Amino acid sequence: MEGRRGNYRGSSRGGGERGGRGGRGGYNNDRSYNRDSNHQGGEGSGGGRGGREGGSGAQQHERPKKEAILDLAKYMDKRIIVKFSGGREVTGALKGYDQLMNLVLDEVKEVVTDDQGAVQSRDLGLVVARGPLLVLISPVDGTEQIENPFAAPEQPTI
C-alpha cells in the first residue's frame, strides 16, 4: 500500500493526472505557455477561470467614459439648495465637489420645518455633504415656488 501513494493524490477532487489541482484545470509548467497575451480561445491572462478577463474569448472593448449627470462647475461659488434623504434641506455657496457628488458648501444655512409648519433656520458655516445622501441640488437664483398643478381643487363644503 505504501508504494501506491501517488495513485491517490487528488483522486477525490478531480484526478491524479493533473497533480491534485481539484479539477480547476491543469498546471502547465511550460515557460513559453501563456507568455503571449494574444491567445485566442479564452486562454489569455484572465487565467481561464473568469479572472479579470471574464473567461470569454471575445475581444474586450473599452466602455465609453460616463459623463456626469449634472455639471456642477457652472454652480461654483454660487448659492444652491441641497435636499438630503431624511428631509434635511440646506442652502449654501458651492466651493467644491468630486466624482462621487460629495459637496463642499460654505456659509450654509439649514432650513428646519417643525410639525406645525413653522420654518426656522440655523447657521452651519462650512459643510461637507456626502454625495450618496443627496436627493436634490438646485440653484437659488432663477427659481421660484409655484402651486402644485396636481393638487385637487378644494370642494366647497355644504
SSE topology:
Elements: H1 5-8, E1 79-84, E2 89-97, E3 103-113, E4 119-129, E5 134-139
Antiparallel strand pairs: 1-2, 1-5, 2-3, 3-4
The H/E string reads: HEEEEE
Rg from alpha-carbon coordinates: 31 Å
Q: Which structural class do the helices and strands define?
A: mainly beta
> Which whole number gives the mean pLDDT?
75
Q: Work out the helix count.
A: 1
Low-confidence stretches: 41-46
The percentage of residues in β strands lies in 25-35%
How are the strands ordered across the major sheet? 4-3-2-1-5
Q: Could you give the distance between the termini?
A: 102 Å
Task: Give an overview of the whole structure.
The chain is mainly beta and 158 residues long. It is 3% helix and 27% strand. It has a 5-stranded antiparallel beta sheet with strand order 4-3-2-1-5, with no helix packed on it. It is extended. Mean pLDDT is 75; it is low at 41-46.
Key structural traits:
mainly beta; 27% strand; 158 residues
Task: Describe this structure in a few short sentences.
By secondary structure, this protein is mainly beta. Helices cover 3% and strands 27% of the residues. Strands 4-3-2-1-5 form a 5-stranded antiparallel β-sheet, with no helix packed on it.
